[in-house]
Amino acid sequence: MKKIIKNLPVHAILIFVSLLSVFPFIWLISTSLKGSGENIFAYPPAIIPSDFTWENYTGVWQKVDFIGYFINSMIVAGGTVLLNLILSAMAGYPLARMEFCGKKITFFAILATIMIPFQAIMLPVYLITLKLHLVDSVNNFAGFIGLIMPFAVSAFGIFLMRQAFLGIPKEMEEAAIVDGCNVFQIFTKVLIPMVKPSLAVLAIFTFIGSWGEFLWPSIVLTKESMYTLPVGVNNLQGMFSSNWRFIAAGSILATIPIIIFFLFMQRYFISGENEGAVKG
Amino acid sequence: MFKYYGKYTPYLFLLPAAVVLIIFFFIPFFQTFVLSFQDYSNSIYHPAFAGFANYIKLFNSPVFYKVLFNTFIYLFVAVPVLAIVPLFLAILLNQQIKGITLYKILIYLPVIVSIVVAAIAFKWLYADEGILNYLVTTFGFQKIGWLTDPKWALYSVIIVTIWKGIGYYMMIYLAALMSVPKELYEACEIDGAGFLRKHLTVTVPHIMPTIALVTTISAISAMKVFAEIYVMTKGGPLNSSKTIVYYIYERAFENLDLGFASAMAVVLLLIVLALSFVNVIFFERNKYQI
User: Fold this and answer.
1) What is the pLDDT of residue A4?
2) Cβ of residue B116 closer than 8 Å to a chain A Cβ
């Protein structure tokens, strides 16, 4: 108790900042629960709805295919994560463990990609995606591939995996070689199981990044049935123009999956060990 | 260690990642420059060579200067706030107090949530008859056109970017603070140094590389903002909240002027490269040593 009183100013500041962080969502939730009998522009504003209703949720649920958006987001984020894990691990392994001609150049080429923002090269990426017919106007599968491929591997992932492989004692490989393993068996049976923690970190942060991605899908997608959640949420504004009850309810619905994911995985985000892992 | 792999094995392992990076990274990188010398106004598939026409058009366009100016305002407002406020919060959270995990979760929440949802939530706070204007009028001021007044729109959008970034940079700082030796603080306290003095003399010098890192990351992110603007203002009113990436998007995908947009992309590329270069040269050299 004494300690709490001594730390009172600290708690006051932290509570204030926490409130600022969640208030926009609280206000959105509040609006989404207000019935048509209540003025959502009332002065003074009411946080607790007086005409409480779930109608906005059922209403927006009937008009908008949230399940479809959710499935699309899952396919895109899932595919992006899977490819990132495979490609980063494969590329990180020789960079950590093998000597070969051109290693330095490869290394710096990958490093250079960190410095080039997607936004600056997205126009040619778009033209290439069109030329490869990886757009949803060809078919849905091509559309998904087009959403995933530009983000299928990142320098961050490759360096993360290289770092993980560097941390494994060489004796592990030597023992495997003595046992008669070839290089692919060493990779899949010996090394991969040992870098699982890094793979988990890579998976989680790639997932969050892919799940929230907005710019690329809003450029390439043409069909509403292919919308991912962020694109679908943005589209709510056009669908319900000034019906803020529905827009609020839809935004909250779309946010629930990632909040659940975050609460289950929170130790990965707030332990402080994986600093700087989400793309900024 | 003896060589246990074949001559071509390293390349085999690198191949899949290399294919993706070449198709979706290196080719587009060089093509951005090529595109900026082409004229796409007649056909998107059969461009004509345009020489420096796009650059001349760009440097003669008042909107370009407005957009550049806005982008630098974004930089100069968002970066200092994102370098300092999260550090302050991290210092507060880097001690044994009750409820620390809950504070971290709540402050980190905006980082996790989609920027589109965040932008919609703020658009609602900024509504003309919305809750922020209620507060403003309660304190006796005139209502503010948060997103409709050219004087305010850019700053209203910047606030969203800051709000969404604070938790992220706070976690970076928290990780760095763990490495500051506790004895230094104790020595400071014995000398009777207060909160500010203690952290200015011990914390700040100790985590200077992290402060520099946060400054560069937040500067580069500020150069790349798009969703906030797309969802809240579409760059308006009167281009007052338009920044580089939004302008590239608009010229390329709404006006289909790919050449002009690419010239703009080259400008963006050069600015970000300069910022990254400074970062890598000075701060991350050790991290990526072979």
Assistant:
1) 67
2) yes
For position A275, what pLDDT does the model report?
A: 47
CATH number assigned to the domain comprising residue A91: 1.10.3720.10
Determine whether the interchain pair B117/A251 forms a contact, defined as Cβ–Cβ distance below 8 Å.
yes
Question: Does the bond joining A44 to the residue before it have cis omega, within 30 degrees of 0?
Answer: yes
Structural tokens at position B106: 């709540």
User: How far is the alpha carbon of B141 from chain A, nearest alpha carbon, in Å?
Assistant: 15
**Mean pLDDT in chain A?**
90
pLDDT in tens, B47-74: 888 889 999 999 999 999 999 999 999 9
One domain for residues A72 and A207: yes
B151 Cα to chain A: minimum distance (Å): 23
Which residues are CB-neighbours of B51 under 8 A, at least 6 positions away?
B37
Question: What is the residue range of A12's domain?
Answer: 2-53
Does this model's pTM top 0.80?
A: yes
Given CA atoms B199, B201, B207, B210 in this order, what sign does their dihedral have? positive
Task: With a cut of 60, say whether residue A279 has pLDDT above it.
Answer: no
What pLDDT digit, counting tens, does each position of A129-180 carry? 999 999 998 899 999 999 999 999 999 999 999 999 999 888 888 888 888 8
**How many angstroms separate the CA atoms of B286 and B290, rounded?**
9
CATH code: domain B15-284 is 1.10.3720.10
DSSP codes, B142-179? PP--TTTSTTTHHHHHHHHHHHHHHHHHHHHHHHHHTT
Looking at the complex, report in whole angstroms how far the Cα of residue B88 sits from the nearest Cα belonging to chain A.
Answer: 10
- Using the beta-carbon criterion (under 8 Å), do A214 and B114 form an inter-chain contact? yes
A106–B117 C-beta distance less than 8 A: no
Chain A neighbors of B129, CB-CB under 8 A: 41
Q: What is the ipTM for the molecules in this complex?
A: 0.89
Who among B16, B217, B218 is closest to A87 (CB)?
B16
pLDDT band at A280 (very low <50, low <70, confident <90, very high): very low
What pLDDT is stored for residue A3 in this prediction?
Answer: 67
Same domain flag for A97 and A139: yes
Q: Is the dihedral of CA A121, A122, A128, A129 positive or negative?
A: positive
Same domain for A184 and A163: yes
| B16 to A28: CB separation less than 8 angstroms, yes or no | no
- Give the bridge partners for A248, in sequence order: none
